[in-house]
Amino acid sequence: MKPRIGTIVVGIACLALGAGIQRAYDTWQAQFGRAVLAPGETPESAVKAAAPIWTAAAVDRSKINYSNQPLWAWGETEPPKSDDKQAVQGAPGAPVNNRNANLTPEELNRKRRADGSNLAFSLAEIRNVDNPTGGGNVVDWFPDDHPNPMPNVVRYGPAALGKNGRACGSCHLSDGSGRPENASPAGLPAGYILRQLNDFKSDLRHSSDARKANTNTMIMLAKSMSDEEMKQAAEYFASVRWRPHVRVVETNLVPKTQIQGELFIPTGEEGAEPIGNRIIEVPTDVEQNQVLRSSHGTWIAYVPVGALRKGKELVTNGGMKVVKGQIVQGKTTACGTCHGEDLLGVAPDVPPLVGRSPSYLARQIFDIQQGARNGSNSNVTLMRMVVDKLTAEDIINITAYLSSRPVPPPASSQLLTRR
Fold first, then answer.
1. This prediction's pTM
2. What is the pLDDT of residues 34-44, one digit of tens each?
3. Residue 410 phi, psi dihedral angles, 5° rounding
4. Alpha helices (runs of H) in 266-378, residue ranges in sequence order
């Protein structure tokens, strides 16, 4: 009986998806596929020219419903205000980060070591003291983890920006392992990475929350990258094997934390606090992750009790249930319908989901749901239909389950190409 019900469920899901894909494609064509160019304008010239890294992207957020926002994914406790301006990293006149102010020259220049690495770097090198808000060398604790040499755009940033730019590896780390406050491009399909860069460049992809400054930085960097630099960055990160570094723990109580730079950092105080309706993603070792910025740093994602079971139902069958022999339609579509049965993605343009940061995944779901993140093909429009009815609790459950799933090594070689 169960196999028969499963076949029926899959059949209905496929029919629904087929209709959804057609609707999504028609909508995408209307929004992006038939763009009208000015007389004498080419698609290339229609893309805005490179702008300084500190330029604020213009975004209309007037229609975003923040009542459903998973604030924990942004490292925030209060919803944004309607008059919030786009936050910008490294803007001229912005307060200078003074975390080095109380360090002696000896302490700042003392060589330090990350666990498992035979290299040594000082805080001055790790924090790029010579140019703290611009380009500079990327500290690479584990050079054997990725192809060498590292492309210049990954190590130094777009050539067009010089020292005013930022290196890809300064935020995403040398091997693309990334952190909860940004993306983890390692092991993603090169075609997917390239499309995201072009979507940033074309002002199609933004954060729904104006306080998210590093999304604005990505937009400015993408606008400054050449086609060759985009290709090099995409191929580099796609070639790096993805190593999951998030451990998911169900719990009612979490360590006391404080928010620093969009991250939950344990205070070290005794006792605990209720997790509430949140996921709290913290570094396993603050020294390794925060001070040394080791690409081998790991994270613990504390999730509410029961989140994994609920998330599995939504991820695997969209919440569809069989009640007294009758199929009750769920509120969404099974993730595996598009992202592959193993959720490891489908090359060249559908990303893997398992073993990734729940904070990052939650932000993307909400951004797509609210229309802040768009795309130059129909995939994002289709995703918007899939996530349209998800609540803040659903987002917690889905991302908790996805992050908890194991990734068979090597993940990057298991991406499938389907016709």
1. 0.86
2. 333 334 434 34
3. -85, 130
4. 286, 307-317, 336-339, 358-369
